[in-house]
Design goal:
Length: 205
């Protein structure tokens, strides 16, 4: 498949790019700083762009079969980067006839799915504005009319891929999950329609 990865230079995004190439896909890695995408491969196109610039986003989406997003924003100030950027992605997908969107968000976006420490203390104290925009992002995707899955990992680690993880409808079954397993799950969702129009949580064992 021809894939575009938004957030390709992030810790999860770069693993997603690597695993997609390993599985034989053609990948466009969309990044504000292309030098941050350190992988070199003949099936990889690194495209410099700003997620808030619609025609740059459209240029990445055009000709692709599916879109994957690991976009993240770390801000304690009000932000609309995720929701505006995702609006650009969904608009471009509809204009280009690309139907499938797999997006990584976070436990906590449903309001009651993050556990006591993360949901009741850390989000309100440190991540409130970020999560307001994550919730807006989810609403954008839900209203897009696309084939979408939004996944909700909780605490991410840099541990190696295990290939074993728990997927649940409610809160994550366990807090920690390797980013490499999140990437693995996202790639499986390209063809697995079980979770379409849903927000599954993913967690390690």
């Amino acid at each position: 498949m021809k894939l575009v990865v938004f957030g390709a230079s992030g810790k999860t995004g770069i693993l997603l790019v690597y695993q997609a190439l390993e599985k034989g896909h053609e990948v466009t890695a969309f990044a504000r700083k292309p030098e941050s995408v350190t992988i070199r491969h003949d099936r990889l196109r690194v495209l410099q762009g700003d997620i808030l610039q619609y025609y740059q986003v459209r240029a990445a989406v055009e000709g692709c079969d599916a879109v994957l997003s690991t976009l993240g924003v770390y801000s304690r100030k009000p932000t609309t980067v995720l929701s505006e950027g995702t609006s650009n992605i969904t608009r471009a997908m509809k204009e280009c006839g690309v139907k499938r969107l797999i997006c990584m968000s976070s436990a906590g976006i449903l309001g009651n799915d993050a556990g006591f420490l993360f949901g009741k203390i850390l989000i309100p104290m440190f991540l409130n504005e970020e999560f307001k925009d994550k919730k807006r992002q989810l609403q954008v995707i839900r209203g897009s009319g696309l084939e979408w899955v939004v996944i909700r990992p909780s605490s991410l680690t840099d541990s190696p891929k295990t290939g074993k993880y728990q997927v649940t409808d409610g809160p994550p079954a366990y807090k920690k999950v390797p980013r490499a397993d999140v990437a693995d799950f996202m790639l499986k969702l390209l063809t697995d329609k079980k979770y379409d129009q849903k927000t599954p949580a993913v967690a390690g064992y």
